[in-house]
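Researcher: For the annotation table, I need structure tokens for NNP family nitrate/nitrite transporter-like MFS transporter. Please keep the output clean. Sequence:
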Amino acid sequence: MNKTAFLKAGHTPTLLAAFLYFDLAFMVWVLLGPLGVQIAKDLALTPAQKGLMVATPLLTGAFLRIVMGVLVDQLKPKMAGAIGQVVVMGALFFAWQHGITSYHEVLILAGFLGVAGASFAVALPLASRWYPPEHQGTALGIAGAGNSGTVLAALFAPSLAMAYGWTNVFGLVLIPLSIVFLFYLAVAKDAPNCPPPKPLADYLAVLKDRDAWWFMFFYSVTFGGFSGLASSLTIYFNAQYGLDPKMAGFFTAGCVFAGSLVRPIGGNVADRIGGIKSLTVMYALAALFLTIVSFGMPTVWSAAAVFVGAMLALGMGNGAVFQLVPQRFRKEIGVMTGLVGMAGGVGGFYLASSLGYAKQITGSYQMGFLIFAGLALLALAGLTGVKTRWRTTWGAAHLTAARI
């Protein structure tokens, strides 16, 4: 890819603002995962309750992505993102000032943190609309690399909680959130070719297109696997290998960093070789690594190595899916980002909660991992089934400059 051509093609300040907003929103979205060991100890939670606590922001974030997708098309991306950031900061301020003293209260906070997860439906259209088809994978990969915020949460939240108490972490994260909010307001700009708002009834029309459902399923596996693991691994490393919250957070950060780092690489590779070919390899690798780790690795280091492999596959898969979506749904990118993003959050909720229930019911995490590996194989089969039709219809060479 010609770097100069890419820089000239879009609006770099907006791309940077989208990345930073997405990055810190994701940090907050999964915050309860890295804090989960300490919160569970103080509130005396069961394994299933721990799983539901870290999974709830993923579920509420999933459905709020639809709401945010509608707001993006009605109010334009910048305004929708500003509203979301204010709501999240308000919820964190309230939790910091009033404290969290029960399981139900932590679930309410988890619901509000889902608004941060809905940032996905803002950041991607905000960046995407500035770039032509041949640069979509790279632009969305860079904006989507904001999921590296999950690394920041795993890296710093457990240590800050040990030093200042986990309730005060909610106040401390307001500092970087406020700085990025001001930067976002100052430099982000809506693309001049934002499509006009559509009647609300039109948003459901894309669901009549079977390709919309395929993209939702494909992303529920790639992003669902990434976000579900990012939210669960601190608790997993603590329960499975007896690591303290701080060390479990470090191991989680290493695994999550791998998955978030390669998202833009996944988008760029998909631009070069085609999203279908890239996704085919990624699903096979993800299924393999999740199956291996389900049998319980002998040491925490070997487990981390396998999780890194899974996260690399899932992270690159995230970039590949969003190389394809704008090619197929260019005019509906706002609502499709919301729908596909919702499916990704649902996948994450399923994985995180199922790991907790598997542990409580069977005493082992194995079943949770194996079922998700099966979903990756199902996605691989589905992709194999649609690839010929995609390459001969909307992805045909005479219709697009992008590789499909």
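Researcher: And a one-line annotation?
Model: The two ends are 16 Å apart (CA to CA).
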